[in-house]
Amino acid sequence: MQDPIIDVTDQLDQYAMDVIGSGLNAFNDENTGINDRLPLGVLVKDPASGKVVGGVTGRTSLGLLFLDVFYLPKEYRQAGLGSRILQLAENEGRRRGCCAAVLYTINFQAPGFYERHGWRRFGEIPCLPPGTSRIFMTKDL
């Protein structure tokens, strides 16, 4: 057998993502006997156009809720909207049988927001620019 070609790229197509993702999913299913992964979105839509303007995306798998990206435009950062979105995501995680949740944020983003909602830090890694760090957080559900 010839050695495989290894290509480092910043151009990932859907086919490559599907091959890698489905391969890992099959491996995990074989080793755990559990296939419970589902995407999760709590979407905020503009009332006039119905278009998505923000929200949170993530997934659930093997009893964990993963929050990946949380964004609200400035005009939607009104009192309580972010808290409602976070609570809805956590509630959906509980409904799906998750016992804990994980996320990471950056020190200039929202660690205080998450801490006010019962999340706790379990790790921090410095990144660029100097003085910046990624903060890893978890919450029991």
UniProtKB/TrEMBL annotation:
Xref: CDD domains: NAT_SF
InterPro entries found in the cross-reference section: Acyl_CoA_acyltransferase, GNAT_dom
Classification via Pfam families: Acetyltransf_1
Superkingdom of this protein's organism: Bacteria
Stretches assigned to the N-acetyltransferase domain: 1-141
Designated name of the protein: GNAT family N-acetyltransferase
